[in-house]
Amino acid sequence: MTKLSRRKGAATDLNAPLATSVSNVICSLMMSIRFQHEEEEDEVEGERVKVVDDTSGPRFRHFMGLIEEGFRLFATVASVNFVPILKYLPGLKNAYRKLEKNRLEMAEFFQETVDVHRKTFDPENIRDIVDTYLLEIEKAKEEGRGELLFDGKNHDRQMQQIIGDLFSAGMETIKTTLQWALVFMLHHPEAQRAVQEEMDGVVGRKRLPTLEDLPYLPYTEATLLEVLRRSSIVPLGTTHAATKEVNLNGYRIPKDTQVVPLLHAVHMDPALWDEPERFRPTRFLSAEGKVTKPEFFLPFGVGRRMCLGDVLARMELFLFFSSILHVFRVECPAGASLPSLKGNAGVTVTPDPFKVCLVQRPTDAEFLSMGGGGGVSDGSALRYVGGH
Ligand code: HEM
């Protein structure tokens, strides 16, 4: 926030700062790593000031590039799941080759992380998810069941995959939803003002919002729910398969049939939602002003294989979104047109690149210096990479 405020409302593409911040959450939990926001000087209102770089260090930038490319390529090759013969098309063969090359490069990065953890491992001080796995592997070996772990598959290879899955599932989704939230706030300044007024009343102007505030901020929560519904960033969920023949509403689904949950179709069904195209947060509020979620609201899927990270996702979305809107008014740069509401389909549906002006809202105290409650720790116990 402090770094963004230095831009003094100049048009900014938030893609890179959001990618770095969101990555830092999942990377701290998984492997105690944070990436640095790189700073550089820029001319703002005729003055040279330090601002957040539009990119975040070469190593991180490269890493992010691999993830983003992976998401795009994955969508390209998805057609093969339905028409297998397509895999012989030269374009798709190339996409597969590129995906494999990128996967190997990322696996190398993850393996380095596992190796560093192994060298510094202390069973009395479990630092993160990688340590938790290492501890479990140690225990399993001691108890003579090491061979059974991960169905007998290579432990390191499995850890590489888990880190990769959590990182890609936990970063791109949050970043994209936050970008859509900003796009909808630009299109609906009245909703933005309502969120800000609610936070001003509940949180006040001396600190940032915290998770404890969430139950008292129904309009803010409803706005995020409407962003999740309207953007449906994972429109096809993930492909499942029937493990046995089932009968669903009179339809016979044979064993092994692939099942694609059309979450976007559910979220935009006019039989379920009044005027589904319209962005209207109040549809998630009861007459008493309480947050209410119908059972057909499924941004994280449904059932035993629904999103593993939904609790973390909801916390992150709230903290990032509410903090940005509490500190800044989000405006469209002068002369620019509003970003399109039409997304670009990959594994997730992303908005076109866009810039926003973050105009600092008046504060009672200098909470941007992060001295007050709800400030952001510098995570000094964590290992920083990427930005230097
Ligand atoms: C706005 C944020 C997010 C959205 C909208 C979202 C949505 C989804 C959806 C729709 C699925 C498929 C569920 C199904 O097929 O039934 C899924 C699966 C998954 N998500 Fe998320 N997700 C988000 C954030 C996260 C985060 C932060 C993490 C990790 C920390 C995560 C990890 C996963 C994993 C591991 C799966 C696969 C679960 C399985 O197959 O058992 N997601 N997510």
Automatic annotation (TrEMBL):
GO molecular function: heme binding; iron ion binding; oxidoreductase activity, acting on paired donors, with incorporation or reduction of molecular oxygen, reduced flavin or flavoprotein as one donor, and incorporation of one atom of oxygen; steroid hydroxylase activity
Native organism: Ladona fulva (Scarce chaser dragonfly)
UniProt record similarity statement: Belongs to the cytochrome P450 family.
Function: May be involved in the metabolism of insect hormones and in the breakdown of synthetic insecticides.
Cofactors: heme
A Pfam family: p450
Domain of life assignment: Eukaryota
Residues reported to bind heme: C307
A GO CC annotation given for this chain: endoplasmic reticulum membrane
Membrane topology: Peripheral membrane protein
Chief place where the protein resides: endoplasmic reticulum
Sorted UniProt keywords: Endoplasmic reticulum, Heme, Iron, Membrane, Metal-binding, Microsome, Monooxygenase, Oxidoreductase
InterPro entries xrefs: Cyt_P450 (IPR001128), Cyt_P450_CS (IPR017972), Cyt_P450_E_grp-I (IPR002401), Cyt_P450_sf (IPR036396), Cytochrome_P450_fam2 (IPR050182)
Subcellular location(s) per record: Endoplasmic reticulum membrane; Microsome membrane
Protein name: Cytochrome P450 18a1
GO biological process: organic acid metabolic process; xenobiotic metabolic process
SUPFAM superfamilies referenced in this protein's UniProt entry, alphabetically: Cytochrome P450 (SSF48264)
